[in-house]
Amino acid sequence: MNNTRTAARQDLLNKVPEAILFFWIIKILATTVGETAADFLNFNLNFGLSWTSVVMAGLLAISLAAQLRARRYVPWLYWLTVVLISVVGTLITDNLTDNFGIPLEVTTAAFSLALMATFAVWYAKEQTLSIHTIYTRGRELYYWAAILFTFALGTAAGDLVAERMNFGYANSALMFGGMIAAVTFAYYAFKANAVLAFWIAYILTRPLGASCGDYLSQPANNGGLGLGTAQTSMLFLAAITTLVVYLTLTRKDSTEKRIAQ
């Protein structure tokens, strides 16, 4: 009985990568793509916010279904799902702000509460929020729900600070980057709780990536560098693809390797 349970847990543990340096690099790149790709589809290709949301939600549903059916961690599938959920999270916030006129202060607070509620239910049911203990379908669903809310929250918080509070994209990126650095320092220097540090850093990478994406893509008169959403999206997608191919070949972030040791 114990051997069967252990084997089942290992199969699902393999579906979540190790949170090594490559994990955080790709995560930040994916958050940037989530911001710029949503704007590119919406404005440059004239999909409009509603149609862009429908198309990307459909693609996310397909990718997430494949991710849930997979028996182990597959780098390209996992990170494709993260990129798509990043885009959808951005679109959720944009729809609430642009189509329904809900202030960013309200969406930031609402998504904060939604994320806390997700964590509360997850912990009440499973007694852990660790990404290294996701060995049931229920925990995996909690994991992806939390990620969706982190992206929606990060978009709202990033826009609130950079645009509504007129902090600027570059200053916002530096601020959120500094907060992530502080969390990292607390973890390594003061042995802060690993699970808490992970999720705080994960949440903060979203507004960091959104601010970086806007800074690179927005025109100079809006406080950006004017690279455009198409160029920025293609640049970061190329970087993500390169890193994912590398991880596929080397399996450096594979939990399977960790379990075997």
UniProtKB/TrEMBL annotation:
InterPro entries for this protein: DUF347
Protein name according to UniProt: Membrane-anchored protein
Regions annotated as coiled coil: none
TM segment ranges: 21-41, 47-66, 73-92, 104-122, 142-162, 168-189, 196-216, 228-249
Organism: Thiobacillus sedimenti
Pfam family, one: DUF347
Keyword list, A-Z: Membrane, Transmembrane, Transmembrane helix
Superkingdom field: Bacteria
